[in-house]
Amino acid sequence: PEQRDAFMSQRSVQDVVFRARRANIAVLSVGAFSGNSPIANYGFIKPSELEELQAAGAVGDILCYFIDVEGRPIDHEVNRRVCAFPLQDLSDIPSIILVSGGQDKVAVMRAALANTRVSVLITDEDAAKGLLSR
């Protein structure tokens, strides 16, 4: 968290976040929860943290924040280290476009849709069928 706070307090980063908060449209994607996800492959989190997140109910991530089945951020150290647009501020953006696909992302897409005011969903047939089947 100290490194995150130092990074996020830089004037240039604050300017980017300020501008993002004023955006009319946000285009987002989600990440499936797996040991093969880019977040895990690039070493941003340890295998032990992946296990802890799974035990806490994580189904994937949005903006690199791990979320549960209801789309709420998991209370975990990993989420406190994220250097990204604040998840809670998404509700202030008028139009959110979620672009994601694949059967492996159905659970996290469903979670994101449950707690994020998505205006447009762009996906593939497999994910659409998965989202519609319950």
In short:
By secondary structure, this protein is an alpha/beta fold.
Helix content: 25-40%
Count of domains: 1
Low-confidence stretches: none
CATH class: Alpha Beta
Which structural class is indicated by helix and strand composition? Answer: alpha/beta
C-alpha-based Rg, rounded: 15 Å
| Major sheet | 3 strands, parallel
Looking across the biggest beta sheet, what order are the strands in? Answer: 1-5-6
How far apart lie the N and C ends? 38 Å
User: What characteristic shape results from the CA principal axes?
Assistant: globular
Protein model, in words:
- The protein has 134 residues and is α/β, with parallel strands linked by helices.
- The chain has a single domain, classed as Rossmann fold, CATH 3.40.50.1360.
- It is built from 7 helices and 6 strands, in the order H-H-E-E-H-H-E-E-H-E-H-E-H.
- The strands form 2 sheets. Strands 1-5-6 form a 3-stranded parallel β-sheet, with no helix packed on it. A 3-stranded antiparallel β-sheet has the order 2-3-4, with helices on one face.
- Helix 6 (106-115) crosses helix 7.
- The longest helix is centred in the first third of the chain and has 11 residues, at 11-21.
- The radius of gyration is 15 Å and the shape is globular.
- The termini are far apart.
